[in-house]
Amino acid sequence: MSLKRKYKRTLSPNYTLYEQAVDLYLYENNPDKALRILLKLAKANYNKAFGEIGVIIYREKHDIEKAEKWFVKAEKVGALLEEATYEYGMLHYLEKDDWETGLSYLFKAAEQGYKLAYGDIATILYLHKSDINEAERWFEKAEKEECILAPAAFFYGQLLMLERDDWEKSEKLFKQSAKEGFIPAYAEYASVLYINKNNVDEAEEYFNKAEENNCLPAPHAYNYGELLIKERNEVEKGNKYLDLAEADGY
């Protein structure tokens, strides 16, 4: 007991405030209060707060310029922790269209043990480096750790379908991605459902969702047209989608 009391007395007030801010953000869904505390800590030169400020400003405020300033400040003092490293990498990738710099930070985050980086590393390797084997390895790492998010699930599904001819597993990944609201997955999942004839009703539902979100590329428009004609006997409406697909060069 005395050792615990001694340990508690050694905790600095700044550390206690930092932990409180992290809890407010992660567990109490109160980013504004967390940010106020972290900014006070930053003013007192508590370096660990710098990267966390960048994370909240990027995620919650979507202020790219201000978030980057805090990430840079954290990196300069060696306080860019794994989550901030990941978010800084995603900022480069998604906001600055700089996948190479983004990938370098994601690798650093992964080396620090930040598992959410795995799927994004795989996605960049697949889309931008066409390194199928290495991308698949990182997708598998993300899957094993149960941390494959909707966008990565979608691109992993594409890799398996197009490169490995594994339609069964790709369908599961498209389903996960679509159910989690990743819009590009709607049409892909709908097409796989229709082609495999697993569930025509659900396929139609997701074709509609894709159309509502203006994300129905030509091959999927064609599949939707075929479904309407063959399964619903809606020839006029089906032909409209076939014409759209043809107009887009399919």
Topology:
Blueprint: H1 2-10, H2 13-26, H3 31-43, H4 48-61, H5 64-76, H6 82-95, H7 99-111, H8 117-128, H9 132-144, H10 150-163, H11 167-179, H12 184-196, H13 200-212, H14 218-232, H15 235-247
Helix pairs in contact: 2-3, 3-4, 4-5, 4-6, 5-6, 6-7, 7-8, 8-9, 8-10, 9-10, 10-11, 11-12, 12-13, 12-14, 14-15
Class by alpha and beta content: mainly alpha
Shape: elongated
Strand residue content: under 5%
Tally of contiguous helical segments: 15
In N-to-C order, the SSE pattern is HHHHHHHHHHHHHHH
Radius of gyration: 23 Å
Give the helix level as a range of percent. over 70%
Overall pLDDT level = 94
What CATH calls the topology of the domain at 12-101 is Serine Threonine Protein Phosphatase 5, Tetratricopeptide repeat
Total beta strands: 0
Distance between the termini: 73 Å
Main sheet characteristics: none
User: If classified by CATH, what would the architecture of the domain at 12-101 be?
Assistant: Alpha Horseshoe
CATH class of the domain at 12-101: Mainly Alpha
| Low-pLDDT sequence parts | 1-8
Give an account of the 3D structure.
The protein has about 250 residues and is an all-alpha fold. Among the domains are: about 10-100, Alpha Horseshoe (Serine Threonine Protein Phosphatase 5, Tetratricopeptide repeat), CATH 1.25.40; about 185-250. The protein is built from 15 helices and no strands. The chain has helices at about 1-10, 15-25, 30-45, 50-60, 65-75, 80-95, 100-110, 115-130, 130-145, 150-165, 165-180, 185-195, 200-210, 220-230, 235-245. The longest helix has 15 residues, at about 220-230.
